[in-house]
TrEMBL record:
<dbReference type="GO" id="GO:0032259">
    <property type="term" value="P:methylation"/>
</dbReference>
<dbReference type="Pfam" id="PF13489">
    <property type="entry name" value="Methyltransf_23"/>
</dbReference>
<dbReference type="InterPro" id="IPR029063">
    <property type="entry name" value="SAM-dependent_MTases_sf"/>
</dbReference>
<dbReference type="GO" id="GO:0008168">
    <property type="term" value="F:methyltransferase activity"/>
</dbReference>
<keyword id="KW-0489">Methyltransferase</keyword>
<keyword id="KW-0808">Transferase</keyword>
<protein>
    <submittedName>
        <fullName>Methyltransferase family protein</fullName>
    </submittedName>
</protein>
Length: 287
């Protein structure tokens, strides 16, 4: 475990408790917040070995197990195969900012929704992933080369897609710098992650504070960092990347899928609320 006495991003000592969760299983149970830059982060924070063990068979755990997630994703991939370019850009606006197709890297590809859009647009597919079950799944769905680990070739990829990965890493600054290194000049970097500045997060904490309660953690306990929009923008600008698009969006679950999910009613209602508010963000940059 790593205990932070200062903010991991801006090094400020002006940090306070933010949330705690003793009811769910996960590598982190408490969060701190930097009052200077707005970063919310796990504290104590699991180290690399702890996180690696947790992510083994990740898509068989927790919410993914209860929602029969792989079957749902298979259905969504099939739908993407019928979309034209305009429909893809409407469904996933972060794909609309690129100059040409080429080598597409999905970092931490999971079960491959990013790969589905890129394949339909005509990209050559590459991916990284640690979960062997997820690797087997995407290799059965797409013509993709999957790397289980880090990449070494600089200036190689035309489009790097990072969907809900950066909130899991231990050093976001170094992570963005590495993505810039392997991205071609003129290439596109798209990062999707929760938005700590969303109205839902703010309202939930405000209501808890009114009741003199410590807020519970309402996103994944595996998350190491949650960024407000302004801070994520600052981090990419510090790497010399040019922001082309930065927008907020909802959870993205279809209500028909929410009805089918095999989970307690309370959990379903939570997902419905999360699906109504814009709790996530995408930032799209060019090198």
């Amino acid at each position: 475990m790593i205990i932070h006495k200062n903010c991991p991003i801006c090094s400020s000592s002006n940090i306070v408790g933010d949330a705690i969760d003793l009811h769910r299983f996960g590598p982190h149970i408490s969060r701190a917040r930097c009052k200077d830059c707005g970063l919310v982060f796990a504290n104590p924070m699991a180290d690399a070995n702890d996180l690696f063990q947790y992510y083994n068979n990740y898509y068989e755990k927790d919410i993914y197990q209860s929602t029969d997630y792989k079957s749902t994703i298979k259905e969504e991939i099939l739908k993407v195969k019928s979309l034209d370019k305009g429909e893809i850009f409407k469904s996933a606006p972060h794909f609309s900012i690129y100059e040409k197709t080429g080598k597409f890297l999905d970092v931490g590809c999971g079960l491959g929704m990013g790969l589905a859009y890129a394949h339909q647009l005509g990209f050559e597919l590459y991916a990284t992933e640690f979960d062997q079950g997820a690797i087997n799944f995407v290799e059965s769905e797409f013509p993709v080369k999957v790397f289980k680990g880090e990449l070494s070739t600089a200036n190689y990829f035309d489009f790097i897609h990072i969907s809900h990965v950066i909130e899991h890493v231990l050093d976001p600054k170094a992570y963005i710098a590495e993505m810039k290194r392997i991205l071609k000049p003129g290439g596109t970097l798209a990062i999707g992650t929760p938005d700590m500045s969303s109205l839902l997060y703010k309202s939930y904490k405000w209501l808890n504070h009114l009741q003199l309660k410590v807020p519970r953690i309402i996103d994944g306990l595996e998350h190491t960092f949650i960024f407000p929009k302004h801070l994520l923008a600052t981090l990419v600008k510090e790497q010399g990347l040019q922001i082309k698009l930065h927008y907020s969006h909802t959870l993205g679950d279809k209500y028909s899928n929410l009805i089918k999910y095999k989970m307690p009613l309370k959990n379903k209602l939570t997902r419905v609320v999360q699906n109504f508010f814009k709790i996530n963000q995408w930032i799209v940059c060019v090198k």
